[in-house]
Structure formats: C-alpha cells, structure tokens
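$ ./design --mode recover --in tokens.txt
reading tokens...
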C-alpha cells in the first residue's frame, strides 16, 4: 500500500498563478498583507493594487506569515483523513513561516498518534517552490514512500539555484533593508543588483550592473553557467515582457526544458518592488 501523501506550500510559491492550484493533493497557506486598516490574504488583492497603494501613500504594507491556527487546522484535517503531509516553505531567511510550520507540525503529531508531517525549507521563493511540489506529486503518483519523498525534496532544494534582480531599491529602503542614501545612490547611478540565495538560505549580493538590459543579460549568463537544466522558473513583479524575453532566450539555449512564469504575490512584492524578476533554475540530477 502506497503512502497517501499530500503537499502544502505557502503562497510565496506563486501557486495561485499555476495549474497546480487545482491539483487534488495540493494545498496552500496564504500569507497576509496589511496597510493601515486594510488587511488581506495573499491573492485577494493584486500586485498592481499594492504598488498603486504604495505610490499613493508612500508607505509599504506590513506582511505576516499565515496564522498558526490555519496551519494546525489544515494539518489536522489531512491527518484525520489518513494523509501524510509534506510542507514546502519559502526560504526561512525570507520568512518565519517555516519555523511556525515546524511548531504546528510538532503539535499535531504530538496530539494525533501516527500523524506524519514533514516540513521542508525550500531555500527559495516564487514558482521554483511550485516546481518542487510538482516534481514530488509526480513521484507520489508513482508510489514513492514518505521517507523517499522527503529525501527527494531535499535533493530538489540542493539542485535549485536562485538569482534575481530589482528595478528599484526604494522598497528595500522603505523596509529598512538598505539606507536611504544607498537607495538614492543606486537610483542616481542606475545600479541594478543581482541577488543570490545561497545554500544555507541566506541572501547575498552576487553582482551589480548599471542598466536593466545588462541585469537581464547577466541573469541569463549566470543561469547558463549552471550546467544541464531540468527546469526553469521566472517569477516577476508585473514585467511580463522581460519575463517573455528571458523565456525565449532560455528556451533557445535549453530546448525542451519546462519553463514556468508567474507573477509574485503581494507579500513578496511588498519587499522587492515593481520590476523585480528572478531567473531560477534546477540543475539536472
């Protein structure tokens, strides 16, 4: 008898923008954005709405992880149906959702005999998490065990390489992640940082270039240095034309490799700003 495995992701995965949202074994925990007296779950307001709100008020919304009560309820419902649960979270450095999911999983496993919940730190964000979930769900259909699915998930994490660029430093400055002077200098000199999520999940500046065009070309160079690829991911903040450019270039270089393009949701957009775009790749095993 095969393990009956279901997969949970958080909304930083952009799953709402993919067909995976309709998969019967897929579930999503939605993060929260809050601006003044207005609060919404990720997906209830568009990214364009968020950027317009910031432009009008000059203030960023606050963001928070899904409530632990939602996690416990979702886990409990699945476990009581006899399901084993794999949770794949956004990079634990970017969000505290992973740690809270671990706490919720322990509580449910302590309370319900036989409950089996595994929580994975993807060390990534955006649709590369959907790629991991999709790959695992395919293995589930083949009858993979929970232990092997967990090992496979960590292998997918190891082979996923995450690089992105920003079109403005304003949002990082407003969020206190760089100083106002740094944002001003970046604006004056047209600096476009290339940012990388390293193996331990930390986020580091990888390179910097002077124009948007050079930033996109640098992303392509980096992606094409990663060897033979299994899958390609292009999450972006309302820059579909740039995303299609990256898709065309990568498709020409890596024919037949699946390419995902998604719009990032409001919690991630609140930190990265309009024009943010990633070129994430998963190396072939």
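writing sequence...
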């Amino acid at each position: 008898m095969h393990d009956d495995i279901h997969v949970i992701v958080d909304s930083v995965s952009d799953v709402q923008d993919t067909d995976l949202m309709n998969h019967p074994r897929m579930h999503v925990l939605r993060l929260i954005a809050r601006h003044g007296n207005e609060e919404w779950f990720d997906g209830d307001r568009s990214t364009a709405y968020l950027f317009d709100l910031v432009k009008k008020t000059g203030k960023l919304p606050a963001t928070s992880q899904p409530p632990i009560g939602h996690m416990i309820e979702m886990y409990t419902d699945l476990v009581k149906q006899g399901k084993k649960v794999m949770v794949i979270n956004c990079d634990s450095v970017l969000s505290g959702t992973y740690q809270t999911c671990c706490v919720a999983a322990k509580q449910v496993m302590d309370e319900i005999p036989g409950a089996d919940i595994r929580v994975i730190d993807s060390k990534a964000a955006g649709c590369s998490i959907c790629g991991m979930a999709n790959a695992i769900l395919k293995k589930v259909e083949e009858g993979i065990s929970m232990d092997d699915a967990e090992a496979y998930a960590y292998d997918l994490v190891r082979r996923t390489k995450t690089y992105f660029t920003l079109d403005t430093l304003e949002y990082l400055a407003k969020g206190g992640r760089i100083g106002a002077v740094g944002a001003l200098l970046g604006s004056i000199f047209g600096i476009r940082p290339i940012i990388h999520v390293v193996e331990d999940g930390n986020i580091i500046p990888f390179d910097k270039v002077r124009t948007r065009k050079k930033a996109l070309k640098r992303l392509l160079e980096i992606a094409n240095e990663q060897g033979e690829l299994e899958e390609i991911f292009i999450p972006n903040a309302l820059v579909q034309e740039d995303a299609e450019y990256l898709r065309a270039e990568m498709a020409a270089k890596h024919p037949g490799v699946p390419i995902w393009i998604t719009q990032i949701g409001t919690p991630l957009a609140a930190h990265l700003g309009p024009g943010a775009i990633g070129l994430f790749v998963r190396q072939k095993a």
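exit 0
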